[in-house]
Design a protein that fits this description.
The chain is α+β, with helices and mostly antiparallel strands. 26% of the residues lie in helices and 22% in strands. The structure holds flavin-adenine dinucleotide.
Length: 187
């Protein structure tokens, strides 16, 4: 397909969640993710209670739980000056921050991303890996790319030109072009 309702650059938690929800609502979605595999980063491992409530509202909660998500139901401040039992006596319950949510949801970052990326595909988004988006710019694509419409050359020499693909949104409003290359493999 050459035209889409929505182009999403980056299939992390945010991009993949958006792609899933929009594709489920009937929009044609192109989701482009640079990495071939999600890295194990300390990032987005802990979804706050109000985020869990949003995930439920968006129909994403079951996906996260099926991928291994679990709730943290209390907060304990352990300290070298306190016996563990004494610290636990002052545990703060975490179920009070959002109705029907027992506490924050924890899930390893790469699993979280992959679960949502797979959900986007299952919802019929075109979801591609190993695609590095180099530019996104307003305008229709043409022989002369809209991204360089004001430049001096009608055939700009892009560094990765041979591997580039250009697409335009065939919509009367807010057309955009984008330029991509195959992302270099990470060691
Ligand atoms: C150390 C750290 C810890 C954090 N811990 C938490 C936490 O516990 N809870 C929480 O809610 N938030 C946490 N955050 C914030 C966290 O970053 C976000 O919640 C979440 O990861 C944001 O998701 P995202 O999809 O917006 O961005 P990202 O996770 O950054 O995803 C962006 C994606 O875009 C891709 N991409 C980038 N450039 C391109 C390109 N040119 N072309 C194609 N693809 C591209 C990347 O490969 C990546 O997959 C933390 C942040 C940091 C830095």
């Amino acid at each position: 397909m050459d035209s889409y309702d929505l182009l999403i650059v980056g299939g992390g938690i945010g991009g993949s969640a958006l792609a899933t929800v929009m594709a489920r609502s009937g929009k044609s979605v192109l989701l482009l993710e640079k990495s071939e595999a999600y890295e194990d980063k300390v990032r987005g491992e802990w979804l706050a209670s109000w985020g869990v409530a949003e995930a439920k509202r968006l129909g994403l909660y079951d996906i996260l739980m099926a991928a291994g998500g679990h709730h943290v139901t209390r907060h304990v401040s352990y300290d070298e000056s306190l016996e563990p039992k004494a610290a636990e006596a002052f545990a703060v319950p975490l179920g009070a921050f959002a109705q029907g949510v027992p506490g924050p949801l924890c899930l390893r970052h790469p699993i979280h991303c992959q679960a949502l990326f797979d959900a986007a595909k299952a919802a019929s988004a075109e979801a591609l890996r190993g695609v590095n988006v180099l530019e996104v710019a307003a305008g229709y694509s043409s022989a002369r790319p809209a991204t360089r419409a004001s430049g001096p050359s009608p055939r700009p020499s892009w560094p990765a030109r041979k591997r580039c693909r250009r697409r335009s949104l065939a919509r009367p409003f807010a057309p955009v072009c984008w330029r991509v290359e195959r992302a270099p493999r990470e060691n």
